[in-house]
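EI: anyone free to look at a 346-residue chain?
SC: sure, send it
EI:
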Amino acid sequence: MKKLGLFSGAMFALLLVLMPLSAARAAAGPADFFKGKVIECVVPYKTGGGYDAWVRALSPFFKKYAGATMVIKNVPGAGSLIGTNKVFISDPTGLTIGIINGPGTMQAQLTDIKGVKYDLAKFTWLARLTAEQRLLVAGAKSKYKTIEAMEKAPAQAPVKVGAPGLGSSNFYESVLIAEALGINIDMVTGYDTANEVTVAIIRGELDAATGSYSSVINPVQNGDMVVAAQYGDLNMPDVAKAPHVKNLPVKAKDGKELLAIVFALNDVGRAIVAPPGLPADRAKFLEGALKKCLDDPTFQAIAKKQQMEIVYLSGAQAKQIAQKGLAISPALKKKLKDVAAKYQKQ
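SC: here you go
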């Protein structure tokens, strides 16, 4: 009994030593978890595009505020669906995040595009970086340089419009606007990035495309492209003379409803998300780090120089907008699918 007592005493003493260590581990927060770690940020496009530019600009600031190194992994394909799928199925540790094309991925989900393996409502939303003004641009070599000229394009000589893929916002915006305004278009998809579409327009291989302000404003200012129309809630002085799509007369019976989809889904913007099931404390930490990056004066100067407009929303706010966008009526969802199917290449 005496030996047992000595043994019990020794065990008790050992527990007293180990308990503070266990408590310290238990108290270790997300900052300790992420410190020194590598976080993979998936970009669902090739290098060189607008989405890629955003995360590459953020990367050094992310290390400053999160304590982790952000490594960019470009996973292009299917108009951003492949990269978005990759983020969705990754382990929810916080070590894999991604930037997504909110409007494009939402419209792909709503229309049941083959290859969609994600559910936007289930992502862990960390932040919306921007919801830029969108522009309908035409090439300087095109005969369809104005919205009026596009509206008069005959069926036998349609406006040739380009987009990165069937899951891209460029595709959906283009076909919905064309359908609503009664514009005859030939929809050309399969480009890996919006930049490739821009090059094709400048070369005269395409007539037009839709794109974010930051991704097309340089060739517009260089004279290689012109702005035929704009849509969004921002006021950009250098495109102020371009007509707003919401003010143009619709030709289709349900044209206003189709344009309402374009405007609503554009609000989702470019967002940073993590896989479903990320622990709340880690999500909150990453969200806070991203907000600090966007608020950093040096980052803001870089964003301004690269003409990247910061239009921030918290993760909760971005998720709410996404959920609202997914909650369209069955009739409108069917119409969206019908319009998309009409312009998809077989």
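EI: The chain has 14 helices and eleven strands.
SC: 👍
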